[in-house]
Amino acid sequence: PPPLLPKSIVWYAPFYSQSGYGSEARAYVLGLERHYSIKIVQHGDGFSQKLYSGLNPQVRRRLQSMEYASVQLNESVVICHSEPGAWNPPRWPTSLCPPRYSSETRPVLLIGRTMFETDRIPDGWNKRLNPVSYTHLRAHETPEHLVCRLLLEKKKKRGNEIRYGKDNKNGTNVKAT
Fold first, then answer.
1. Dist. CA 88–CA 54, nearest whole Å
2. Which residues of the chain are under the pLDDT cut of 50?
3. DSSP line for 118-140
């Protein structure tokens, strides 16, 4: 059985991007680094030299040390923190998240984190969302947006794949079956 707490985290995100994903990911890993061994991988959005050069030198060194950290994938939680179009298989050139692994190197948990707000699952996302163990999709708290997030979370708890279709009870364009 997997350990209750992982030994390490492998965090894929646009750390050196000026995007909201980048600033959120930097805040998370800088806050967690004293509790876990963290390896970071630039993922999703492109690298911004302007942002990189403008980082506080101490923060830049902390992030660089996380880039070169050595962790065991099978003792880690892997986090894909970007727009799901970048998740494996990505729609554009970027690092693979979730990464390829064997049965011996399978991560403890695969988490997808996105801030993409939607009332339906965009085309192509189902094949990117299904490999992760848990999907955190930030959503507006309106009935149409909230149902999308709840269905994704329900899908993960039940171990089901996302299916497209019309749910006649609430009129949404997605449902977990």
1. 30
2. 1, 139-151, 154-155, 162-177
3. -SSPPTT-HHHHTTSSEEEE---
